[in-house]
Amino acid sequence: MSISKQQVIELSQQIGIDKIGFTTADNFEYLRAGLEAQKAAGHTSGFEHPNLDERLNPALTFDHPKSIIAIALAYPSRMKESPVRTNLKRGQFARASWGIDYHQILREKMTSLIKQLKGLDETARFKPMVDTGELVDVAVANRAGLGFIGKNGLLITKEYGSFVYLGEMITNLEFEADTPIPCQCGDCTRCIDACPVRALLGNGKMNAQRCLSYQTQTKGLMSDFARKKTRNVIYGCDICQLVCPFNQGKDFHLHKEMTPDPDKVRPELLPILSLSNHDFKAGFGQMAGSWRGKKPLQRNAIIALANLNDRSAIPKLREVMDGDVRPVIRATAAYALGRLAKPGDEEILGDLQSAYQKERTEKSDALILHDYQVAINAVQRQKNS
Ligand code: SF4
């Protein structure tokens, strides 16, 4: 039995999919030159699917594809409750990490839709994907008419702005394609101007290596240019979304799984430094922001403590610098101590100097040593001033 587009739309609404669109399974070759140039310029994050041909051609990963169904789920942009008041400084997760991991939510929605469609036509085949799949999510969603691609590179929908999660499924079912929506940014450059690390290049492209969201997800030392700019954010970045005129007033709470727990998405920073693997999994394991593991979040929490000038963290940071087994975490603690130390902190200076000597003896790499040197210089300068 053939399935009509209207049937798919109605089923998607029953399942709780907020927006759905359809496009052909034709290739996306028109993206090739831009993606190659981005890679050649060193502007990719490395999180992309590695095979460019597969990213551009649905037929390489799916036998005889006919259409692609694109879906969007709206996520909240404001919290209804505040975290409990305590004496500890708090960090924050970007909105795309509120609630349980959106990959899981989108997968469940698509699985449910596929099940129902297969019930109508047992010959129907689907390949669902979210974020880490072969295809370029925003390009598919744009071609399927869900919204336009803004100068910040995000898909912007009429109803929900860019506060949407995207997923898509390649299928052997044939549907009439929807119409792609051209960019509606006009003369606006708010996101480009607001990005504190100039990651947006102005032509709709970005240097993903500079993006603060990427910087919070690396596993080594965070780049120096990004450390102060992340403020108290320990995962992701929302700046280019918050300034966008198409997002003003957009705040949808349509899915209970996306409801943020204020104490988790604005977590106390200091306890993050002592988290066991078990506590990390229990506390943060369900969030999208935990996908890179505990270490980047701990590193970012240390940087946030320095950015918030939280001197109450000094004893813990000294302990971390002295005893943590991970060089990146020790060096980041040294960096934070260098920023938090005040004139008269001879003890911290002594700690930094002996930790530096230890790193040299252990032949730690130059970037690690650099953080100690900068911190020592900073405390010495303060002492002499
Ligand atoms: Fe486009 Fe302005 Fe939104 Fe950036 S802030 S995506 S330029 S409308």
Automatic annotation (TrEMBL):
<dbReference type="GO" id="GO:0051539">
    <property type="term" value="F:4 iron, 4 sulfur cluster binding"/>
</dbReference>
<dbReference type="InterPro" id="IPR011989">
    <property type="entry name" value="ARM-like"/>
</dbReference>
<dbReference type="InterPro" id="IPR013542">
    <property type="entry name" value="QueG_DUF1730"/>
</dbReference>
<dbReference type="Pfam" id="PF13646">
    <property type="entry name" value="HEAT_2"/>
</dbReference>
<keyword id="KW-0408">Iron</keyword>
<keyword id="KW-0963">Cytoplasm</keyword>
<keyword id="KW-0671">Queuosine biosynthesis</keyword>
<protein>
    <submittedName>
        <fullName>Iron-sulfur cluster-binding protein</fullName>
    </submittedName>
</protein>
<dbReference type="InterPro" id="IPR004453">
    <property type="entry name" value="QueG"/>
</dbReference>
<keyword id="KW-0819">tRNA processing</keyword>
<keyword id="KW-0560">Oxidoreductase</keyword>
<dbReference type="InterPro" id="IPR004155">
    <property type="entry name" value="PBS_lyase_HEAT"/>
</dbReference>
<dbReference type="GO" id="GO:0046872">
    <property type="term" value="F:metal ion binding"/>
</dbReference>
<feature type="domain" description="4Fe-4S ferredoxin-type">
    <location>
        <begin position="173"/>
        <end position="205"/>
    </location>
</feature>
<dbReference type="Pfam" id="PF08331">
    <property type="entry name" value="QueG_DUF1730"/>
</dbReference>
<dbReference type="InterPro" id="IPR017896">
    <property type="entry name" value="4Fe4S_Fe-S-bd"/>
</dbReference>
<keyword id="KW-0479">Metal-binding</keyword>
<dbReference type="Pfam" id="PF13484">
    <property type="entry name" value="Fer4_16"/>
</dbReference>
<dbReference type="InterPro" id="IPR016024">
    <property type="entry name" value="ARM-type_fold"/>
</dbReference>
<dbReference type="GO" id="GO:0008616">
    <property type="term" value="P:tRNA queuosine(34) biosynthetic process"/>
</dbReference>
<keyword id="KW-0004">4Fe-4S</keyword>
<keyword id="KW-0411">Iron-sulfur</keyword>
<dbReference type="InterPro" id="IPR017900">
    <property type="entry name" value="4Fe4S_Fe_S_CS"/>
</dbReference>
<dbReference type="GO" id="GO:0052693">
    <property type="term" value="F:epoxyqueuosine reductase activity"/>
</dbReference>
